[in-house]
Amino acid sequence: MALAASLAVSALLKRSSSSHGEALPSSSNSIPFFGVPISFSRSTFPGKRLLSGRKLLVFAKRMSGFEEIMRMKRDREQEGVTKVKRRPPLRRGRVSPRLPVPDHIPKPPYVGSNILPEISSEHQIHDSEGISHMRAAGELAARVLNFAGTLVRPSLTTDEIDKAVHQMIIDAGAYPSPLGYGGFPKSVCTSVNECMCHGIPDSRQLQNGDIVNIDVTVYLNGYHGDTSKTFLVGDVSDAMKNLVKVTEECLEKGISVCKDGASFKEIGKIISEHAEKNGYAVVDRFVGHGVGKVFHSEPIIVHTRNDNPGCMVEGLTFTIEPILTMGSTDCITWPDNWTAVTSDGSPAAQFEHTILITRTGAEILTTC
Prior knowledge:
This protein is an alpha+beta fold. The protein has helices spanning 5-14, 53-78, 128-151, 158-171, 238-256, 265-277; strands spanning 3-4, 175-176, 189-192, 195-197, 211-220, 223-232, 281-282, 286-290, 297-301, 317-320, 323-325, 331-333, 340-342, 348-350, 353-357, 362-364. The chain has a domain at 3-9 and 120-364: Creatinase/methionine aminopeptidase superfamily (Creatine Amidinohydrolase). The chain is built from six helices and 16 strands. Strand 12 and strand 13 form a beta hairpin.
């Protein structure tokens, strides 16, 4: 389950000399985003000297006229061509009451409070017993996610996905980690089309051609396992299929650079390179995080280029969960304070694994 990067920024602002900060809850719109935006040179052009003063003004006017001509040319070419009908924007459906959890199932400490928990500053490094528990939690989360994926089809509601996931988790003697986290009302996140993350399951039916990310986290024997995947709903366009494919590849590439002693910033570098090569943008507002006995902790995993300090150590567990879009990386948060959608309505996809750092690489814990 992704963290809003603004939480990480507030943590960085509050610490002094520590190399690892503590992220605190804050408004999703009140603090600058974390990460490095894509930038383009505006002062030089290949084979040309730097332009300045009046020459720059004249050049800009010429460019403006040229761009207008090209726009008119494209408009003429598209006349008589059937345009692809844009999918209607996502709308919130009816949210049913939260589902009960049997009393005998151990619950995380945040359950019962609507206050968003503080992000622990402690890196979660495990001994052999802790690793065993993390493997069990990760394997259960992966099985639940795979099961949820088999349900995905047109006409299914995301509320039905939530109910099925909830039942499978409690049948396994575990607790669905999102339920009650900072007041989140459901047991799983379901993010459809332009929803970047944190979508709340509701009565909306999945439509043919949709994509939906299902984000599952389980709390088993005192440890959290966290994973997500974007699924295709029925007959999906080639463009959407490619977005999903490249997003999964970005996750795999991010994991590939992980090992004892590696810099955290290498993750954002390789993910950004692969996304940009394929024409996509990486969302910098939401980040991966440490996970284990605590749902969200340091280290904060940034999926865009960055110069953040810190290195991985053997026994550390955290998530990598890049979000890619076909358009803007800016987001709008719905009044429910959870659902984050792209500002231009462009589709977004996300994949996530919980990994364990080893001496020579990384073990993916959320597999089955």
